[in-house]
Amino acid sequence: MAALFVALQSIALADDVLDRARQLVQARNPGAAYELLAPFESRRAGEVEFDYLLGIAALDAGDAQHAVFALERVLAVNPNYLQARTEIARAYFELGERENARREFESVRASDAPEAVKQTIDRFLSALGAGPARSSGFLEFGIGTDSNVNSATASGQIAIPAFGGAVATLGPGGSKLADNFATFGGGGNLVRPFAPDWALIAGAAANFKLNETQDQFDTNTLDGNLGTRWSRGKEAVTLGYQGQSFSVDNTRFRDSHGVVMQWQHSYSDARQVTAFTQVADLRYPTQGIRNARREIFGLAYAENLGGSWSPIVFGTIYLGREKEDAAGVPQLGHKPAGIRLGGQMTVAPKLLVFGSLSLEQRRYGGPEPLFLVTRRDTQTDLRVGANYPVAKDWALVPQLSYTDNRSNIELDKYTRTLFSVVLRREF
């Protein structure tokens, strides 16, 4: 009986060591976790969870060689342990073993790893130098309901101050219309390294929204980008072209062409900061007076908090201006400023939930001729949804979004609720 008690006490102590080490790793204190685990290595080497924790603690504490030894033991027992394979690839990278690192990174990228992991791997592969091109794509089909397909005011009549307060009745399509819809789209991305630290990046996407009865408000969006990315170690810089064509009722409503510049710094695999600027010329084929140049400057931060649910949080702040091309219409230009917060987490083995909340204020450049005041808008957007895999490479994505645009001009006030269920295939 005494021997059994001692054995059970040893097991409890061992589990306590792993629990404390795991907490230290999650608290971004790998040095303390490494010091806690190292004295037990001679007795516990070969235990998958112990070796995995020891490996990531050693790696983040700066001992990449010891990390390789520990993670090799993990993979010898469980070759399909993707997290361990990702970490050993990173350890090889830190040691300068480029071919070993590339082999392990490409092995993980070819698996069912989450898209965020694949994006991190792409940065490492770019830093390792020219290699094979990597591509990804998606197709999606969905249905939904939209409370305000034309993003219009709920009011049917509007007072016009310029006409002495006379009340005008809005025509068809001038006030809020609800409808059901179907949506479909697809796209793809390509990353092609062409020199050490350099890669060509390209992408294209299309989306079509078809309303059940209000087909005069059917929309389609075509997006494209082409650029180059330099990355080395924890730094990455992207410079490229972005274009978009947005159509309503199969008629081009707005075209956008511009450049994007972005700098990223990865403090670790789990923390990243991004500074960006976007400059685009907006062209309205049927309303040339609305042509403008849009300039946006912003800063973003994202972090994987670790833990069993793997929560990822992010935030973005930005400001800019949209300067009208035409003279004498300052009311068409404005200065936007906004903030966006969001995140995602895996709440069950197959269920990922996500959400975001954003707030944007817009200050326009001059009084509206009909309403005799300078327009001020505050727009709030809330989005929540989930991603549930239903088969290999297929996922069901229900999503709910709500928009509330408050304005000092009645005609520009509106709310909109949109719910959709999309079936998405990634390849």
Brief summary of the model shown:
By secondary structure, the protein is an alpha+beta fold.
Name some characteristics of this structure:
14-stranded antiparallel beta barrel; two-stranded antiparallel sheet; 427 residues; disordered N terminus; 16 strands; 8 helices; alpha+beta
User: Which range does the strand content fall in?
Assistant: over 45%
Question: Helix and strand string, N-terminal first?
Answer: HHHHHHHHEEEEEEEEEEEEEEEE
Helix/strand/pairing category: alpha+beta
Q: What kind of sheet is the major sheet?
A: 14 strands, antiparallel, barrel
Q: What is the count of DSSP helices, taking H or I runs of 4+ residues?
A: 8
Which stretches are low in confidence, meaning pLDDT under 50 for 5 or more residues running? 1-13
Query: What is the rounded Rg?
Result: 27 Å
Mean pLDDT: 88
As a percent range, the share of helical residues equals: 10-25%
Walk across the major sheet and give the strand order: 1-4-5-6-7-8-9-10-11-12-13-14-15-16
Let me know the number of strands: 16
Ends: how far apart?
58 Å
Give the CA-based shape: elongated
Commentary on this structure:
There is one protein chain. This protein has 427 residues and is α+β, with helices and mostly antiparallel strands. Helix content is 24%, strand content 50%. The protein has eight helices and 16 strands. It has helices at 2-26, 30-37, 41-44, 48-60, 64-77, 82-95, 98-109, 115-127; strands spanning 134-146, 157-160, 166-169, 179-195, 198-211, 219-232, 235-248, 251-266, 271-283, 292-304, 312-324, 334-348, 351-367, 374-391, 394-407, 414-426. It has a 14-stranded antiparallel beta barrel. Helix 4 runs parallel beside helix 6 and helix 6 (82-95) runs antiparallel to helix 7. 19% of the residues are buried. The model is unreliable at 1-13 (pLDDT under 50).
